[in-house]
Amino acid sequence: MSSAATPPFSESPPTAPRRRSDLRNWISLAGAIIALGGVFAFFLLFVFSAGAGNGYVGLLTYVVAPFFVIMGLVVAAAGYLMRRRARRAASPRYSIDPANPRHRRVLWGFGLVTAIFLLGTALGTYQSYNFTESANFCGAVCHVMNPEYVTYQNNMHARVACSDCHVGSGADW
Question: Are residues 96 and 51 in the same domain?
Answer without folding.
Answer: yes
